[in-house]
Design goal:
Helix 1 crosses helix 4, helix 2 crosses helix 4 and helix 4 runs antiparallel to helix 5. The protein is of the alpha+beta class and about 230 residues long. The longest helix has 21 residues. The chain starts with 7 loop residues before the first helix and ends in a 16-residue tail after the last helix. A hairpin with a 6-residue loop joins strand 3 and strand 4. It is built from 5 helices and 10 strands; from the N terminus they run H-H-E-E-E-E-E-H-E-E-E-E-E-H-H. It has 2 domains: about 100 residues, no CATH class; about 100 residues, no CATH class. Helices cover about 30% and strands about 25% of the residues. The strands form 3 sheets. Strands 1-10-3-4 form a 4-stranded antiparallel sheet, with no helix packed on it.
């Protein structure tokens, strides 16, 4: 049985009704679309969403250390140095280093087989710098898994929600969050903001808990102090 995903204008209407309003004007659609785009940016700050993971490769050039990732890249989560092709292909893990570690490298232009990578998350792009700088001894390829941004919603509110890169399992969280965002913008709905926020967090938690790796062993990086 196919998964049925309502078109965006139906999701907008549902969110407005949950907030205790009716969507009546073109501006209401524009306002809802703007809030939804902001909310998807918020989702990217909540952590790792599996549906935003994408694999890719970059052919490395001898003597070139820095490369720019695709425009919608948020961060790299895995990276390997690939040599060879076909049955002789070999992927070797390369360590990610901090800005402090990279800045303290005495000879940043040293050439050789890359063993470390520095990821620089700029305001408008993400760049990666390899050390040592790739040499000409053999052909190297950077293989990676990246966390990509969620596509924004186009001006056509009648497009299907699936085309916004949000999978059906996240639609309940999308509607609940949009209702909360709408209520925050209307002073007369102040009494609805807290319960709508609670429902939004509950729906997002359900979706996030379902959107997890099913591997037997999961290794999570430690962040913060003990």
């Amino acid at each position: 049985m196919a998964t049925v995903v309502p078109v965006l204008n139906e999701l907008f209407e549902e969110a407005y009704e949950r907030a205790g309003l009716e969507m009546r004007t073109g501006y209401d659609i524009k306002s809802a679309r703007r809030s939804l785009n902001i909310m998807t940016l918020e989702w990217q700050n909540r952590g790792l969403n599996l549906f935003t993971i994408e694999a890719g490769t970059i052919p490395l050039v001898a003597g070139t250390a820095t490369y720019t990732m695709p425009a919608d890249t948020i961060d790299l989560i895995e990276h390997q140095l690939r040599t060879g092709t076909g049955v002789s292909q070999l992927d070797a893990y390369i360590d990610r280093m901090s800005v402090s570690t990279y800045s303290q490298q005495g000879n940043k232009n040293s050439a050789g087989r890359p063993s470390q990578i520095y990821v620089q998350r700029n305001a408008t792009d993400v760049q990666v710098t390899l050390w040592p700088v790739p040499d000409s001894a053999q052909t190297y390829t950077l293989a990676y898994y990246r966390l990509k941004g969620i596509d924004s919603i186009a001006s056509d509110s009648g497009i299907n929600a699936a085309s916004t890169s949000v999978p059906p399992r996240f639609v309940p969280a999308l509607v609940a969050g949009l209702a909360y965002y709408i209520a925050m913008k209307r002073p007369e709905l102040a009494n609805r903001v807290v319960p709508l926020k609670q429902e939004y967090e509950a729906q997002f938690l359900l979706a996030a808990n379902e959107d997890q790796d099913r591997a037997t062993l999961q290794v999570v990086p430690f962040r913060g102090a003990i």
